[in-house]
Amino acid sequence: MRTRREAIAALEAQAAVWVEQLLAGQPYDPPPGAQAQAVLSWLETTLLPRLRQTPQEITQLLRGLAGHYVPSGPAGAPSRGRPEVLPTGRNFYGVDVRAIPTETAWNVGQRAAQAVVERYTQDHGEYPRTLALSLWGTATLRTGGDDLAEALALLGVRPVWSGPSRRVVDFEILPLDYLGRPRVDVTLRVSGFFRDSFPHLLDFFSQAVRAVAALAESPAENPLVAQVTQERQALLAQGVPPDVADRHAHLRVFGPKPGSYGAGLQGLISSQNWETPADLATAFLNWSGYGYTGESWGEPARDTLCQRLQNTEIVLHNQDNREHDLLDSDDYYQFQGGLAVAIRALTGATPTLYHGDHSRPPYLKIRTLREEIRRVYRARVVNPKWLQAMMRHGYKGAFELAATVDYFFAYDATTGCGADYLYAGMVQAYILNPEVRAFLTEANPWALRSMAERFWEAHQRGQWQAVEPALLDRLRQVIHETEALIEARGQTAQS
Fold first, then answer.
1. pTM of the model
2. Interstrand relation of 290-292 and 253-255 (parallel, antiparallel or unpaired)
3. Whether residues 164 and 49 fall in one domain
């Protein structure tokens, strides 16, 4: 008798066989059932023709640069059940912002909220009280608002949709009996793109916070009520005007200064222009300390952000597809790492760090950040197949290796989620592997030097501690050899 996992694996294997037969124009063997045949027919008549039009990307790009018309199409991710996005190469438009979060996103967000609560309860033996979540505009376009829906669900608030367009017109507060758990006080750190693209959602969330804070519920059931009351009284005692005290006590949406973008960490990490993690925390707080509500847009609120983070138990970041991972971009460490290092600087303790995997919505996964980094390390970072793929891309492939090292180093610097064996494994795979070393030397010695220097920096800063002296000597030798190679190439180019 097959287990559930074995049955799923067998079905996926058979589906792959049918797809191969479809692409080859062969009859299906064995013949599919009625439901499988319907899916295969849709693949043949709808999805495959769209996929075969994707080479139009270069053609349409050239047409656009020449000032000609480029057909329009919707934005989104085909991997998230959006086949209408294909073919690519069109002048894409976004979504109806008044329909976010969509009902589908609410379904995902509600289940994700429950998964986070369950994971924290299992890990700590009690319900979470406070959580900080990052919101990105690009992810919202792809998913229809999974992350915002999750934040609302944690608060215990459900959007209300109306009309054939299913636009969000209001929200309703879910009773505690329905939730089956206490509410969670949620703080949002939004990106500049999210702020600019969905300003009404910042006001929508702020209104939901006010409504939840006005409920007649106990602090154990609703931590938001107690926090707002306590902070309002403290601000009034300091002589802050009542309207300002009330606004800051309810403030739960923060982002960069109007007109600016990012979290302030990338420049410091890239230039090595920091001494301790406290420097990174200061930069993040300075960049993120602006509050957004319908009443006040981009109001300086650094002290209020510090107050929120001092009470934050969980820092959560979600990933909505498998087209990239958290060591693929500096944005992940800037947002989640920035929140983590700021909390550690303010409280002396590292919060619980979770990574939400929403790439397959029916199978949501909540992992600790350590678990996710180790999963990515095994699946991609030192995977020989990925390394071989990057080596086929010459200079840019070498750059991707160096970028991965940088992002891992930065995540470790901000969260402490690295480990000595991860550094040693990357050195072995990227620098001491003769084949990869030869590729880097030929295709991009600057990337080789960058990686060797970054590993050396990790040791100097105490992030990579248990390292043999012989390995450090080898890194130092690589740095010197690569410097000489780059200098020789420069002299050759000048002559």
1. 0.86
2. antiparallel
3. no
